[in-house]
Specification:
The complex is a heterodimer. Chain A is α/β, with parallel strands linked by helices. Chain A contains 17 helices and six strands. Chain A has helices at 2-7, 32-47, 64-78, 93-104, 106-117, 133-142, 146-159, 166-177, 204-219, 242-261, 272-281, 283-289, 304-317, 336-339, 342-345, 348-361, 373-383, and strands at 53-57, 81-87, 223-229, 264-270, 296-298, 392-393. The two termini of chain A are 46 Å apart. Chain B is α+β, with helices and mostly antiparallel strands. Chain B has three domains: 3-110, Arc Repressor Mutant, subunit A; 118-213, no CATH class; 223-331, no CATH class. Chain B is built from 14 helices and eleven strands. In chain B, the strands form three sheets. A five-stranded antiparallel beta sheet of chain B has the order 5-4-3-7-6, with helices on both faces. In chain B, strands 8, 9, 10 and 11 form a four-stranded antiparallel beta sheet that branches. Chain B has a two-stranded antiparallel ribbon with strand order 1-2. In chain B, helix 2 crosses helix 3, helix 4 (86-94) runs antiparallel to helix 5 (104-116) and helix 9 (223-232) packs antiparallel against helix 14. The longest helix of chain B has 18 residues, at 178-195. Chain B starts with 13 loop residues before the first helix and ends with a helix. The chains are: A alpha/beta, B alpha+beta.
Chain lengths: 394, 334
């Protein structure tokens, strides 16, 4: 393969065969037509009030995940916004809390909160419990001072303006102290009402707001952003119960409410149909979410120039040495985008898959470079054959 | 509502009605119910709409349906064909017993009887008709019937269904009893939609089941749909994204075209111009998000196009070049 790639003047195949997610190459690039609306939304909402929610709509393979990852890696950190990425989070509000805190890890979250609160237990010298988080936890456990430690933490949580509610402060204190025995989260920790749960019952939104404040304060960020991918895959099961459907809408309502009150952003990627159904189910909620259409972006299919730029940038990241501008698509011909079908070159996933297979197949020395029209069309038809008579309506 | 006028039942199969009718026609002197039952039992090919062998009750409903539709009549010795009715003579000209399905002519003739029936009109078809039309036939119903939505609603007295004309909201009907439900929602509506094919329906989350009259025949592709599609493709954007269900809700009632034929037209375009059409699938869980039973799920999903991989297609993306190529196809008189 390396000999083949040398022939193609590449160090590696820069196109992923599955073409989902993001590439392992340098900086992520998105076309200006994609970047500008999102940058504009972020610019505006950073200085004004209102729900900081945004919907990115696109078909499968249109680049929704890529765009979210671009926000996560490139755009949000520049603005002091701490991003968290979620894949189909589930219907319940605490499913999100579960995903979020598992993403951070219990020990990591508890430690950063502990460092921020910097607790001291009255009547004990600080050296008694040591200087590190683990030593402090061990000392608390050894001297059976858990209840007292939780009380102290709960007081500090209020003083540092993370939460006011007594139960929430207590739960967060427990979350820290009990990390010694169980340095990981379990799903049952997020089942409100269950004995030993780390989340309060019927206090989902204030609890979540407290977590967000903690994340912001401990991470030195101005705000926190949730990037939620595949929002329509709200459940892995085939059919939602009526209650689950209600919970899905309730979760959405609470999230939007949070974005109004907290330095918190939510950017959701979904299919156009998911947006359509949500709008039909709860028109008022949807209008509030997308701010009467202002906070909604339909990812446009790639135009010829953007498709060419995508291929060029991917190839450039894998070059062993730079090529002259008139052959920077090599081993593809310069007129690649005119050769490919419109439905292929307009879809990032399809385009990347075709390019990936074209390069992978080029191990056969008989494949001429730059790739010929016939070769590229053969690859394209193999991956995306023209429909025959196999479709039917229900 | 009077229970004796709510005789319509969805379990009645019109294929079975045809077979039974042809048997009754062999006995101009009249045939007793018990002989009908014996004949049906000995000819186990008679099935209900769900494919089950018929019970005594179902045979009663078959006979009762033919009687209420005015196709048979009661005489001293039992029942015989109402040959004095010219419509019945026309029906017999098209009947082809023994076939597994109804021919288009048979469907049309049975549909005429159903639409002409007083009870079927009173409880169902009248809601579709504009106020100024009191007398109508199948052709009028298909040509002038307006869209009607039905939805299950919670009231202080319980959960009931309401049917209402979308253009004239005052034309509505509440379904409050199981007898009414069986006769109207699962009786006449099923006959018109599933068996005779002059009504179609799509579920929309906001308005419920949208029902609209449709032509029983037509070409694929439908030139009116090709033309309408050409009109909605943006000339300024390279691609236009269209919601298939929105198109069904708009064009179905407007052009009186069935969902099947509408989708077949889209498939025709897709097969001819795959470079200009991208099918956009949806999540099945989301497509039926409000369904609380397998039956409801199937009902919600019937409004979606399903591809060979089993995916449910909610939207299509079409290229602006399609405007020109569709026009060429039209000129070539597809």
């Amino acid at each position: 393969m390396s000999g083949t790639l040398e022939r193609l003047r590449l160090r590696f195949n820069p196109f992923e065969p599955a073409a989902s997610g993001v590439p392992m190459v340098d900086k992520l690039w998105v076309p200006d037509r994609w970047a500008h609306p999102l940058q504009q939304f972020l610019d505006t909402l950073q200085i004004t009030q209102g729900p900081k929610a945004y919907a990115i709509l696109g078909e499968y393979g249109s680049g929704k995940t890529y765009l979210l990852r671009w926000l996560e890696r490139e755009e949000l950190p520049k603005r002091q916004i701490r991003p968290f990425f979620f894949d189909n989070p589930g219907v319940q509000f605490y499913d999100l809390a579960n995903s979020l805190l598992r993403q951070l890890g219990r020990e990591e979250f508890a430690k950063s909160l502990w460092e921020f609160l910097n607790p001291s237990i009255p009547g004990f010298q600080s050296s008694l419990f040591g200087n590190t988080f683990q030593e402090w936890l061990r000392g608390i456990k050894k001297h059976r001072r858990e209840d007292e430690a939780i009380r102290v933490l709960a007081t500090l949580i209020r003083e540092k303006k993370i939460a006011e509610d007594e139960e929430i402060r207590h739960k967060l204190g427990r979350l820290i102290v009990e990390t010694y025995e169980r340095p990981y989260f379990e799903y049952r920790d997020f089942l409100a009402g269950r004995s030993g749960a780390l989340v309060p019952e019927r206090e989902e939104a204030p609890y979540f707001a407290a977590i967000l404040r903690a994340l912001r304060l401990t991470g030195g960020a101005e705000s926190v952003a949730f990037l939620i991918d595949e929002f329509e895959e709200v459940s892995l099961q085939k059919r939602l119960t009526k209650r689950q459907a209600h919970e899905y809408l309730a979760t959405m309502r609470r999230l939007i409410g949070l974005t109004e009150r907290e330095p918190f952003w939510i950017i959701v990627a979904m299919t156009p149909q998911a947006a359509e159904v949500t709008e039909k189910l709860e028109p008022a909620l949807w209008e509030r979410f997308i701010s009467q259409g202002k906070h909604q972006f339909q990812i446009p299919p790639l135009n010829a120039e953007e498709a060419k730029e995508l291929v060029r940038r991917r190839l450039a990241a894998a070059r062993s040495k730079a090529l002259s501008p008139n052959e920077d698509l090599f081993p593809f011909p310069e007129n690649l985008v005119e050769i490919l079908r419109e439905d292929i070159r307009s879809s990032p996933r399809r385009l990347v898959k075709v390019c990936s297979l074209a390069i992978a197949r080029a191990s056969d020395e008989s494949v001429i470079t730059p790739f010929t029209v016939e070769y590229l069309r053969e690859v394209q038809e193999e991956l995306y054959p023209r429909p025959s008579g196999g479709l039917s309506s229900t | 509502m009077e229970s004796r006028t709510l005789w319509m039942r969805g379990s009645v199969s019109f294929v079975a009605l045809r077979e039974l009718l042809c048997f009754i026609a062999l006995h101009p002197e009249g045939i007793r119910p018990v002989d009908m039952e014996n004949w049906v039992r000995s000819n186990s090919f008679l099935r209900t709409q769900t494919g089950k062998l018929v019970s005594k009750t179902t045979i009663y409903h078959y006979r009762n349906t033919l009687l209420h539709l005015g196709i048979i009549k009661r005489i001293d010795k039992g029942y015989t064909v109402a040959r004095e009715n010219p419509e019945v003579s026309l029906l017999f000209q098209v009947l082809r017993p023994g076939m597994p399905d109804l021919s288009i002519e048979e469907r049309e003739m049975f549909a005429r009887f159903v639409v002409m029936n007083h009870d079927c009109r009173r409880y169902f078809f009248d809601i579709f008709m504009p106020e100024e039309i009191s007398e109508y036939h199948l052709v009028d119903f298909i040509g002038r019937g307006q869209p009607v939505a039905w939805k299950r609603l919670s009231t202080p007295q319980g959960r009931f269904e309401q049917l209402s004309n979308l253009l004239h909201k005052e034309k509505s009907l509440w379904i409050r009893s199981e007898n009414e439900r069986q006769a109207i929602l699962y009786g006449v509506r099923y006959w018109a939609r599933n068996q005779l094919g002059f009504l179609d329906e799509i579920f929309l989350e906001d308005i419920g089941g949208l029902m609209f009259p449709v032509s029983m025949t037509g070409s694929v592709p439908d030139p009116r749909i090709l033309n309408a599609l050409r009109e909605v493709i943006s000339p300024s954007e390279e691609w236009t994204i269209l919601s298939l269900r929105r198109l069904v809700a708009e064009w179905g009632p407007k052009y009186r075209i069935s969902i099947e034929r509408l989708y077949q037209t889209f498939l025709w375009i897709y097969r001819r111009f795959p470079q200009y059409v991208v099918m956009i699938p949806t999540s099945e869980a989301f497509a039926a998000i409000t369904a609380i039973s397998p039956q409801a799920e199937a009902y919600h999903l019937r409004g979606y196009l399903q591809d060979e991989k089993g995916r449910y297609i909610s939207h299509i993306r079409v290229h602006s070049n399609l405007r020109e190529v569709i026009l060429c196809q039209e000129l070539l008189s597809v």
